[in-house]
Amino acid sequence: MKRSWIVRWAVLVFACLALNTNGWGYYFYVLYNASNGPFNQPVVEKFDLNSLVNNTVPFFISDAGPAVLAPGDSFPAIIGEIRGAAAVWDSVSTSQLRFAYGGLFTVGAASETSPGIDIEFSDDIPPGLIAYTVHEVTGNMSLGSGGLIVPIVRSRIYLPNDLTQVATYGDFPSYSEPFFVTLVHEFGHSLGLQHTLTSSVMATLYTSAASKAAPLGADDIAGVSVLYPAAKYLGTVGSISGHVMLGSTGLGLASVVAFSITSPAISTLTNPDGSYRMDGVPPGQYIVYAHPLPPALYGESTPDNIIYPTDVNGNPLGLNYNAFATEFFTPTYAGTSDPAVAENYPINVLPGLLTSGVEFHVNSRPFQAVYAVRTYGFSPTNVPVTSPPLTKGLATPSPVAATGGGLLEANNPNNVITPGLSISVLGTAATASNLRAYAPPTPYIAVDVQVNATAGEGPKHLLFATPDDIYVLPAAFSVVVSGPPSITSVTPSLDANGNRIVLIAGSNFFPNPGTPTAIATTILFDGLPGVIGGTTKSGQLIVTPPPGQNGYTATVEALNSDGQSSLFLDPIPPTFSYGGGVSATPSATALPSLTVTPELLVAGSPTTVDIVGVNTFFIAGQTLVGFGTSDVVVNQVTVLSSNHLSVQVTPNVTVATSGINVTTGLEVISQALGNQITTANPKQ
Amino acid sequence: MRRLLITGLLAALGTLPGSTLRQLSLDDMIRQSTMIVRGTVLPANIVYHGSVIFSHYTIQVTETYKGPGSGQIDFGVPGGNLNGAIQRVAGAPVLSAGQDYVLFLWTSKTGLTQIIGLSQGLFSVISAPGAAPLVVRAAALERTLNSAGQPVSDNDIRMPLSALKAEIANVLSGQSTE
């Protein structure tokens, strides 16, 4: 039956994607050319690649740094983690947008004329807010990369200036999971991505399954890739389109989600007339469902804190937003709440092709029966972990806790499970049983999840069913083959050539992806990856750390690509001290300094900047040079020696070179701030 | 043990990034605000604070529940249009002129006064003839009607204004049971 239906459905597939730009997936900042439709030409806010050199958006970090850091933290560590978060988006090969660290900048010192992203530290972030992003546009549409767009002229990410007084967390160390995931999330906003509801990093934390080890979900990757598609990307993925209708009225801002039992979810929101088109869907078979946005939760100004689409003048549109009962697609358009039925009607997505006619005719509800659910589990050392990794083959089931709207009876202080609520795992990878509520006042429920020994690895989805509605939580947990990586010791050493290495002992390391699993281990030093060169006979990892000044101390974390981190076992990571009793090459102990010529860069004049350092260890490929402004494009950095650089730049404005900063690994040299930066506040 | 841990989760992980928000309890807001006032709001001006455009409002204070607030108080909400530049912040509320609000305000070290938690400290006061005034989280007003023409509702904060005032008084006197 399934096969015949696919054949029938295939007739609705036609090739049109490559030249069609009227769709998207995920959710962008959108406006429409016409107030009353048609709404088939959304205009999105994004960086105009035509205004970027080499499709590269530079990002800058305020040289003021945070005024107060968490104990043991440092400004170079903050810089390392920010660079790591940018590298997450930079690594998406299906997006042609690249990132370049442009160094430190002084807030207000320059009036930028070129696009870029600034990271600032603010005293004006009120309680209840951890970070936020502002992207600035002029409102004027222009013909940019990919058609008509509203160009982002500047994005700014604001982090707390006091990282010991952060809402919820108190101390907010840079190595922590929430610090990093927050950064990745805010970078996503800076590029033009809004919130989604599919457990990706761009979800609000209500449903986010993102982790430091695996921050991006399929929805994030599709989102940035559709916004900034790499060459030929759109020919490698497919699209799904249709409508969400309530009677004869199209519903705006309905969420349409495509997923399979064994793969993560991708979603989009409907246009004001109820039409939708989801691009960037990897080829395969998908179950598709439509659900309403959750009610605006406490602290949200709109559902999911979505900024609603407007017309070109910024006026709000009639969205026809309404809640409805969630349903899976069926070809009769009647929909079903039974995933087993939905599995019989998968949508077949082919590369470069659009599958149209995936229509929903939904039934009104006052609001979703269940919404905004988040799951938690516990690591072997009882550290709580969101969207928990569950090891397959265990003899006993693992408890998974959940919190969210509709799980418990409203206005009942006794924590009574909503009558008729059931929870099940979609597919056969695992089973859920023993639904129960936590004792008051903790508003959580829990189920025991038994993962089958033959289950495939990766994210798994939970179905929450009530007598008259369903709720799907994509990536509610993931199946893994081993526990989180563990670091038991960090030992400084030297290799045969006298170069600094670190021997890292522990367990669940996978230094050789593919043997036997695809899992890869990364070792981070203050957010920057070391290079794993092999293992000792006793199984210790041999790691070359990123360069750092003697005396510098970095936190050390192990991340596995299955989403697990050594922080799952011990939230306070071990440290590595550069130097540490061994004398490595390269090495420098005294404070570095720079001599830079010329002193002035003249607008429009490509210039070679000569940099001579004292107590520096410049390294080809690792030394970065910035002038603190996106109006000076650094074209090439040539390392002539460990203390001599030649840098080719193109200034768009006339600036002094005194704002230069040079970064090699974890060594940050800022001429303007007095060179080596190691303290919480470089101005102190 | 795990019950204790899950209780800890509420404190450790109950956050809502977006603009990355952390859900504040009512008592959190009462304690962390510098002023809690009731009054009607009028738009004032739009200015830059550093690199951020803030839309400023003036609240004509009719009641003060915490802090020195009286007369007219200026506060800002991030985002706005100024000199051709448009900045938008997810989660930043848009206030309605003339609407009666209870605001939980917070003044930063720089002297900028804002609503706590973007929208979290913003409550509309709903008064109906013959009924005691209610305070409702403002976002609830932005939702649409269902197909039957009835307001969509959920588990919003919705309580009599008198109950909110009593809770504020209890917290400030150290008698809160939350």
What labels would you give this structure?
heterodimer, A: 684 residues, mainly beta, Immunoglobulin-like, Collagenase (Catalytic Domain), 5 domains, nine-stranded mixed β-sheet, disordered N terminus, B: 178 residues, alpha+beta, OB fold (Dihydrolipoamide Acetyltransferase, E2P), eight-stranded antiparallel β-sheet, 17% helix, globular
Radius of gyration of chain A: 26 Å
Distance between the termini of chain B: 22 Å
Order of helices and strands of chain B: HEEHEEEEEEEEEEH
Low-confidence stretches of chain A: 1-23, 679-684
* Total discrete domains of chain A: 5
Give the structural class of chain A: mainly beta
Largest sheet of chain A, described in full?
9 strands, mixed
Number of strands of chain B: 12
Main β-sheet description of chain B: 8 strands, antiparallel
Word description of this protein:
The complex is a heterodimer of chains A (684) and B (178). With 684 residues, chain A is mainly beta. Chain A has five domains: 2-28 and 228-361, Immunoglobulins (Immunoglobulin-like), CATH 2.60.40; 44-192, Collagenase (Catalytic Domain) (3-Layer(aba) Sandwich), CATH 3.40.390; 371-480, Immunoglobulin-like; 486-577, Immunoglobulin-like (Sandwich), CATH 2.60.40; 593-676, Immunoglobulin-like. In chain A, the strands form ten sheets. In chain A, strands 2, 3, 4, 5, 6, 7, 8, 9 and 16 form a nine-stranded mixed beta sheet that branches. In chain A, strands 1, 10, 11, 14, 19 and 20 form a six-stranded mixed beta sheet that branches. In chain A, strands 12, 13, 15, 17 and 18 form a five-stranded antiparallel beta sheet that branches. In chain A, strand 46 and strand 47 (675-676) form a beta hairpin. In chain A, helix 2 crosses helix 3 (177-191). The longest helix of chain A has 16 residues, at 75-90. Chain A is globular, with a radius of gyration of 26 Å. Chain A starts with a helix and ends in an 8-residue tail after the last strand. Chain B is 17% helix and 40% strand. In chain B, strand 8 (100-107) and strand 9 (113-115) form a beta hairpin. Chain B has a single domain, classed as OB fold (Dihydrolipoamide Acetyltransferase, E2P). The two termini of chain B are 22 Å apart. Chain B has 178 residues and is an alpha+beta fold. In chain B, the strands form three sheets. In chain B, strands 3, 4, 5, 8, 9, 10, 11 and 12 form an eight-stranded antiparallel beta sheet that branches. Chain B has helices at residues 2-13, 26-32, 161-172; strands spanning 15-16, 20-22, 35-49, 52-66, 72-78, 80-82, 85-88, 100-107, 113-115, 122-126, 134-137, 158-160. Chains A and B meet through strand 6, strand 7, strand 9, helix 3 and strand 24 of A and helix 1, strand 1, strand 2, helix 2 and strand 7 of B. Strand 7 (129-137) of chain A pairs antiparallel with strand 2 of chain B.
